[in-house]
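Risk mitigation, structural track. In case the binding assays with glutamine fail to produce interpretable data, a predicted complex structure has been prepared as a fallback.
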Amino acid sequence: MKRAKALRKMATCLFVAAFLAMISWMLYDILQRDSSISNDTNVLVMGTNATFKPFEYKDGGQVVGFDVELAQAIAKDMGKELKIEDMSFDGLLPALESGQIDMAVAGMSVTSEREKNALFSDPYYQASQRIIVPKNSKIANKYQLEHKKIAVQLGTTGDQAASKIKGAQVVQFPAAPNALQELAAGKVDAAVIDDAPAKQYVSGFPSLKIINTPLSSESYAIAFKKGNTELAEHANKTIANMKADGRYQALLQKYFGTAKEQAP
Ligand code: GLN
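Fallback model:
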C-alpha cells in the first residue's frame, strides 16, 4: 500500500519534471529564434520609402537610388548584407525605435524635433522644400500660399512647412507623386515637396512648374535608433571615405548629372 503511494508520488514528480523540461525547452527555442532575427549579425536593415526619386525608387520591382547605394557601401564596409524594408515615410522613426530596421535612409532631413527621437549621421546632401504650382497659377511665392489648399507628403518637412503657412489647408498624401497628381488634377492650389524629387517628378506633369525660391534649407542624414552610436560611427566613416576617394562624387554624377552643387 505504502509502496504504491510512493510509486504514484514518484510518477507524478517525474511527470511534472518532464513537463517543466518540455516547457523550458520550448521557451528556449522561441527565445533563440527571436534573437536570431533581431541580432542577425550578417544583415543590416535599411528602412526607406521608395517614392523619392532619385534617392529611392522602384526600378523593375527593385528599390534603387542614391540612398540605396550609400547604404550598400556602409553595409559592405561592415561586412554585412543590406536588406531593404520599403514602408511609409512616417513609419520610419517608429520602425527604428522598435528595432524593425537598423537605419532609415530616406532623404530624411535633420530637424530638432526628430533629433529628440533619433540619432543622425553626418549630413550627406543639402536640400530644400519647393513650391510647385500649375504653369498658369498666380502663386509666385510663399506669401501667396496663404489660405490656399496645399498638397504634401505625410510627415515630411514639406508637411511641416505647409502647416506653418497662414490659413493654409494642408492635404496629406502617402507619397510625393500623389501630391503632384492631385495638383495636376486641379484639386489643390500648390504642392510642397523636396527639390530633387520635385525636379524628377514634375517632368512627368507638363502642366506644372517649380517656383525657384526655396522654402527652406535642409540637410539629409541617415537616422539610427538613439544610442546606436556604433552604427552611426560606421556610417560616418563610410560617408567620409566616399567623399575622400571620389565614390560620393561619382554617385552625385550618376543620379544628378553633376558632382558639385549639392554636397554639404
Ligand atoms: N526631406 C523630407 C523629410 O525629411 C522628405 C523625405 C521623404 O519624403 N522621403 O521630411
